[in-house]
Amino acid sequence: MRGKRTAMGAALAAGALAVTGLAFAPSAAAVTPQSATITASCGIFGGGAATLTATQSGTSATISLTSSAITAPVAVAQDSITSTLTMAKSGGGSVVFSGTKNPAMNTGDAVSVGPLSGTVASGDSLDAYGGSLKMVIFGITVTCTAGGPQSPGPFVFD
């Protein structure tokens, strides 16, 4: 009987330590800054200021793009734009974020795509400048590029 109580006590102590460990576990990894702006050029489809918003959870990250300066050339249904955002990596290379997430947009509405998913490593520093956003809408590819570095600076992932 004494052995059962000792085992039960050890199990309770281990459970309490596990709960305490969860309470003091580090929070999810974060990206800084969480949003940045660029001046984008999309050729005949327009251009202007755009906002990029990033999130991170471990090695998974998402980036969304919105712009009231770049407008939908035609009405599009929700989740019907295939988007590929290539971000330039500090030190060389690139990281690709992709997906088919977008709200429904009427002709002339502000463009919004994302969240687009990608994989990052701790310390990755990514900038839209030197990369591109390709959106395929009804088989037509629209390519946007940044005219300069994003502000306030590149996304740095934990």
Quick synopsis:
With 158 residues, the protein is mainly beta. It is 14% helix and 50% strand. It contains one helix and ten strands.
DSSP helical segment count: 1
Morphology: globular
In CATH, what is the class? Mainly Beta
The low-pLDDT segments are 1-28
Organism: Streptomyces camelliae
InterPro entries: TAT_signal
Keywords: Signal
Protein name: Lipoprotein
Walk me through what this model shows.
This protein is mostly beta strands and 158 residues long. The chain has one domain: Immunoglobulin-like. The protein has 1 helix and 10 strands. It has one helix at 2-23; strands at 31-32, 35-41, 47-57, 60-71, 82-89, 94-99, 110-119, 125-137, 140-146, 155-157. Strands 1, 2, 3, 4, 5, 6, 7, 8, 9 and 10 form a 10-stranded antiparallel sheet that branches. Strand 2 (35-41) and strand 3 form a beta hairpin. The protein is globular, with a radius of gyration of 22 Å. The termini are far apart. InterPro entries: TAT_signal.
SSE order and pairing:
Blueprint: H1 2-23, E1 31-32, E2 35-41, E3 47-57, E4 60-71, E5 82-89, E6 94-99, E7 110-119, E8 125-137, E9 140-146, E10 155-157
Antiparallel strand pairs: 1-10, 2-3, 2-9, 3-4, 4-7, 5-6, 5-8, 8-9, 8-10
